[in-house]
Recover the amino acids of this structure.
């Protein structure tokens, strides 16, 4: 019988070629698998809640892994794992779950934040996209509200072989001002590859006055990736929350 | 007649060998002088409000410079200067002042923040000192209050030839909790070289239970740098405010 564990972590994506293991490039997944395998003295594979792209950050991320023999998944394990991991990946929590709990398929929602700094800021070069020209944030919010009217977001996806549908349920989509920052908060049951960055890039076209709200809707309706604006840069994007049914979040112990 | 200007800026000190120009090392001062000289087409020397050490940051910094010919010190100058400067130095404002205004000698107070992160945080490796073991913050605050009883801070200074006295007036000194962060806020009329980091390092000894509050006072009274604790690391320190008399802060125009 295998023993399954959930692990909560955060990472600064700057130095990584995204979450997923790739040949000839360092990924977050690979870095964590190496640390876990060394610490637990058995080869460990991990399954992440999602696949962030190169340069994208996560202030909240969940993965699962299975072990042949159970371990005490408490403070000690977290502390040791952090000492094996580099400074830009931090583990907050590890706990046992039932064998049916799946980091990716059991998740019921994901929330992303996209940060734009409207002033030059020496402290957010890796964590916010700098855009200092005027933006009509009201219009950007008006367009963002239109996302609730649609389910098929093919126009905001990258061609992707392993998904069966391009349907997503949007639960939240809004721009907020926080001092010299703009934050786009978006929550959905699932996101297609590249979807948040494509939405942000297209909403920025609305903010610049290059697209009307009606044109934004028309882009979604066309269900064609070529129709949308350019993707916003990766370094402004943070995965900030993932929800699971209560029964899974709680330890089985 | 020379025309004097104040410039407000912020910088991430990670890549710099401090504020002051040094042989064989890149300083913030030198980087700004080069940008100003190129932009204004005359050799420009700048005088900073203080001299931050290697790796120390400033979210608020003031310098002055003199020009042979007056310039329009408005939004355009700031915008162009920012485009000449690297990402880790940002200019917010430039304005003309009278010839008596001096960035360093006219300043009536400086405020520093020292950030400690009590958890591993992938996003503050350059901007907070990580210390995850328990600290008695109440005791650290009790000791910090003792700073108000003294004026001679030789024990917290580095040997320094160009200052006449080691006396400083402390206006504020307290530790605050902000989530997983501890912030030491300290304000004084002036600070000696290395003083904030030496105070923080010694207060950390109090927090770890290695020094009592009475021993902290005895260290100050000894007026001997060898008596204090090790300096806290540079990357947790931010210069955050500098005050000037109203007549100087306001533009002479």
């Amino acid at each position: 019988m295998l023993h399954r564990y959930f692990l909560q972590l955060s990472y600064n994506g700057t130095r990584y070629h995204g979450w997923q293991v790739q040949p000839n490039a360092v990924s977050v997944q690979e870095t964590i698998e190496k640390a876990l395998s060394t610490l637990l003295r058995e080869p460990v594979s991990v399954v992440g809640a999602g696949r962030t792209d190169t340069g994208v950050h996560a202030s909240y991320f969940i993965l699962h892994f299975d072990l042949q023999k159970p371990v005490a998944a408490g403070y000690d394990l977290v502390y040791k794992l952090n000492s094996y991991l580099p400074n830009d990946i931090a583990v907050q929590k590890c706990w046992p779950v039932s064998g049916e709990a799946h980091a990716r398929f059991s998740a019921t929602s994901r929330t992303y934040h996209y940060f734009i700094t409207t002033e030059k800021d020496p402290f957010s070069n890796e964590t916010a996209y700098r855009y200092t020209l005027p933006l009509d944030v009201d219009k950007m919010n008006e367009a963002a509200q239109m996302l609730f009217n649609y389910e098929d977001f093919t126009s905001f996806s990258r061609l992707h072989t392993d998904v069966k549908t391009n349907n997503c349920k949007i639960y939240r989509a809004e721009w907020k001002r926080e001092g010299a920052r703009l934050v786009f908060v978006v929550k959905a049951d699932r996101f297609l590859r590249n979807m948040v960055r494509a939405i942000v890039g297209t909403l920025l076209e609305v903010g610049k006055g290059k697209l009307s709200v009606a044109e934004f809707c028309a882009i979604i309706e066309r269900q064609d990736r070529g129709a949308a604006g350019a993707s916003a840069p990766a370094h402004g994007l943070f995965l900030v929350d993932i929800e699971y049914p209560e029964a899974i979040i709680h330890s089985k112990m």
In short: Chain B touches chain A at residues 10-12, 57, 59, 82, 87-92, 119-123, 125, 127 (CB under 8 Å). Chain B has six helices and nine strands. The helical segments of chain B are 28-40, 75-84, 137-146, 195-207, 213-222, 246-249. The longest helix of chain B spans residues 28-40.
